[in-house]
Amino acid sequence: MKQIAMAFVKAKREFGPALKDKTNPAFRSRYADLGACIDAVEDALLNNGIAMYQETSEDATGVTVETIFLHETGESLRCGKLHVPAAKQDPQGYGSALTYSRRYSLMTACGIAPEDDDGNAATRRPQPDVAAILRGISGSTTVDVLKSNFEAAIQMLESNHHPAVTKAKNTRYKELTAQKETA
What are phi and psi for residue 101, nearest 5 degrees? Predict the structure, then answer.
């Protein structure tokens, strides 16, 4: 772990911002797409002997991604799983959730953010689909996935939605533990 830690710190000094080069017509806002996020860190990582890859996990309600850094010495650094519920249960919904989760997993793992263009834009951010998030919690297949989904939901949603998310989590937790006891 020592070699990858030193290399990652050196690489981090070279990271750039994720440039907001795409436009979301629905919200009339600019954003950094997955390519911009990769461009912000990939050269710095490779220059320091680190390859980045992202693993996906099977999930019935959305997409779970984990960003992993592999150093040329064989040491690796796993950055934790991020689950994003699919807004729609179709290929487009899963594809959108995959791109979103890969982008945010990478930005979180590297500690980068999109370039800041307007502080006021952050206050106008659209709210995620609460119903889809609740479906993701209710459809969690294990206690670990439930925990991950719940933590992500709490971070994504405003506090007025937290009671509903907590209730859905508690209900699903009881169902999963009851299933485990009867098995």
Answer: -70, -40
Distance CA 55, CA 28 (A): 32
DSSP states along 33-60: -HHHHHHHHHHHHHHTTEEEEEEEE--S
How do residues 113-150 score in pLDDT, each as one tens digit? Answer: 776 544 434 444 455 677 778 888 888 888 888 888 88
Per the structure block, which two tokens stand in for 125?
């951010």
Of 104, 98, 112, give the one whose Cα is nearest residue 18: 112
d(CA 133, CA 71): 35
Which residue, chain included where needed, has tokens 């600019």? Answer: 30
For the chain, which residues score pLDDT lower than 70? 22, 24-28, 115-128, 183
